[in-house]
Amino acid sequence: MAVQIVRHASGAVPAGDELQLMAQTVERFGRVTLLVPSTSERDVCRRAAADAHLGVGLDIVTPTAWIEGLWELLGDGRRLCTNLQRQLLVADTLYARDERELAPLRANPGTVRMLARMAKDLLPFAEGAEGPADAATRVVLSLLDAYGARLRDRGLIEPAQAAVLLADAVADLAPACARCAIVRDVTTLPAYLVRLLAQVGRAGSVQVLLRASQQVWEEEVARVFSQMGCTVERALELGGAEGADGAATRALSFLEVAGPHARARAYADELASLLLSAPAGAHGGVKTAVVACARPAELFDELAGHLAARGIASSVTRFSRFSQTVVGQQFAALSDVVSRMKAAQEGQVADGVWWPAPELTDWLYAPVSGADAALARGFDKKIRSNRALGVEGVLRELQSVQSRAGSARRKLADDHPMCRVPAVCSEVVQFIWQDRPVSAFKSMLSAIEALPASAFGTRDGRCRQATERAMAERAVDVLMNEARALDVSQAVATKILDGLCTASRERAASASSAGEAGTVVFMTLADAAVLEPASVDAVLLADVDVASYPLSHEEGPVVTLGSALGADTTVLEPAARLRDQAERAICASRGPVALARVSHDRQAKDRYPAALWTELLALRGGDEVLVEKTGEGDVAGDFDPAGTGTARVERVLCLPPQRLGVSAVPYLVLMRRTEDGALVPRQFSASQIESYVGCPLCWFVSSRVRPSIIDAGFTNMEKGNFVHDVMDRFHEEVRERGMRRVTPENLRASLELLDEVFAAVRAEHARGKTASSAALVALSPTEQAQIDDILPQLRRVVRYEADALVAFAPEYLEYSFNGLGVDYAGWPLGGRIDRVDVDAEGRAVVIDYKHRSDANPFKLKDPTVPLKKTGEVPADDPRWLPEHTQTLIYGQALRRALGLDVRGALYFSTKGKIAMRGAVSSELAEEEPGDGRVPGLRDGFPAVQAGGTMDFDALLDRVEAGIAERLGELRAGRIAAAADPLTSCYHNHPLGFERRDA
Fold this sequence. Notes:
By secondary structure, this protein is of the alpha/beta class. It has 5 domains: 2-78 and 160-233, 3-Layer(aba) Sandwich (Rossmann fold); 82-157; 247-311 and 510-639, Rossmann fold; 322-505; 716-985, no CATH class. Helix 6 packs across helix 7. The two termini are 76 Å apart. Keywords: ATP-binding, DNA damage, DNA repair, Helicase, Hydrolase, Nucleotide-binding.
């Protein structure tokens, strides 16, 4: 008795001498088991055996089914563990451990999958084993021991354990049902299967069938069985079926596509050509082609439309994992965000960990939530624009969305497709919050069943809806029945749901009214390898590159542990397996066969051919002339699924950058109607005017394109709003308490008042209540510390005010121009100024807070004074304007609106080195420290000592005249970039202003 290695030349279907060998073995032993790797190959072999009249003496099964059958006869009554039960019990074992006991491992789905693979292949060798001394291996072995105990407690056993026990039973009993086994195309031999086969070989006979492309495995198989004490014979060699062609003798064509943009069109054209050149079948009818690739469902999605346009139908079997379905994706995302929201509510983490909860918006967009896109957009805007909403506020808003959606559905007509769709967006989140996943899945299932198929897609909506329904039902079954039967909690069971998979058959019909030109079936190379020879009319091996068919051997913790335990898995090397599968897939065609690949990816990087491509090309002389190459030059043809050139193609000439068309110019300046019906420009604020004068293109981007930030932020803008609110409230309180302004005498009381105001405004901002545009809401300890740092800065501001402009006092705070009807430079002026200080003589100083560290950029010198470096006089340039004009604009407007004698336009930096800078009349410029004017500002208007002649009033008039000229250019449509770029230009200019002809 021995293990025989038998060489044969049959293809996917047993034939010729191979069938004769099986018949002789059945005659000798009475009962023979033929082991095959998959149910697909099992069915093929069963048909061949039936045609050969081998009878019931030949049992054709997979290795797992063989072990299961033997265990039913020879086992101890325990049931074999299924893949799902294994995942559930491994997860239960893992999550029952404390984090400290698991270190350096972590309890997560990835660890569950790793341990499940180890348990499947290595459990009988790992239980009670003395592993290596490293901590990770000790933890793994202890977990596998605990998992084995759980199996025993539930009357279960791993197939690997059963195989080891069956090996002993076969050695002792030598039952007739386990005296002969033939191994065919099983290219992975785990240690437990080798042990069982070795015992069968010693008691009877084991024959390992290897075809030519698998014979590189012969030495390895012989070594493994020899180590088990078996005698290995390698003398037998069989022939194949009569007339069988090998891949080496077939006529092959090669297609190389330059890049992914031309891939769909090129592949569709190639398939149409293959079907056209294929010989008619024996019974006529529609020709069939097979596309074998690594990811058939993805390629089907890309090619189905192109094939349908050419009159070719196509189909694919789609396997959808839990994480690939809407139900699975949304459940995982909601579980994650809910866990973070819970932790934030309990004070374990900061709110910044979950806000702005984009997962909830994605959930509302998903059809299974029962909401709609409009409600999702509104919810997203509200959540993102308010950092102070909090967990409870978000949940209330989610409940409001569900109520509004339900109310809208009740108002729909009875025949409306959405009238019976329940809104479950809030209740699903609540169920997950309450750790009730079954209820969550049932709610989603109710929405799926009520939704029209079109909600899941116009082309394949019905199929996708069926997939979602099946996945939701399967998840409910696992959590309610499978987990309960094993005494595993639902919370743990949800961790293994990613292992669930559903299958669906999809078909794209031909768009031709003249009948189908053929049918294309998409499948993996492994599935194509089990097709019967000459069973289809053409075969296309697609995407034959190293990314799709790598030659790497499996590495990782499972392989490492197997080696440490002396339980290595014997595997046919990837190159030989790929060669074998490709040869059988090629033989499945009775007509033409082609190989296709894409030579570059979307980044123009090389995609190298698979070894299969290189070998088959070399068999034909290795001549690159044999390879048909297709480029990406036909852009229109690549975009047109029909590929017939009937689509209208135009060449669009874009305008030069930064120039508007004539029809667009009227929309540049927005208009409004007055009470008498006249059209006048809308109000411009001083900041908008300053933005346009500084750089017209930046103004256009920020005020017309408006690429606004989605989320409420914690930036300098929000900090500036906070400072504005504090200082405004502070000066109001100063006046209410009878203090005209901050002075050295009341400085201590003023600082105490500042502390009170700061705390009050901070609390208001934390609740989202603010008079400014955006509240400063801290969502993390780091942001809280940044708010804490603002108070010392503002205390320095108050101390600075005590010695500045001592004759002036704040008179107008947050003064608005919107309702005054004031024109500036011929345009209506709006907006507000932070503060206007006035003295007893009616002189005024305009002050604008700037929450920035350096006030020097706001300095303004008399432009009639020659520059020291060049000697040029800035005022001689008729287009001269200062860089910062906001306070100057409002100063001129105040002269008209309130009749004030404006003597200064200042910017007050409230951060870093506190200072006031800008333009003032000469009487307010500091002459000596502590003189009660503007500290540190020594240049006034006019700068007489330097030879300047422009007084402050002339400055205001000159600026207004210059701005009037610029705004005239705005009305004419000028939005060109500034000649001298500002800091903001580097952020705004790249936003879509490089134009190309298309």
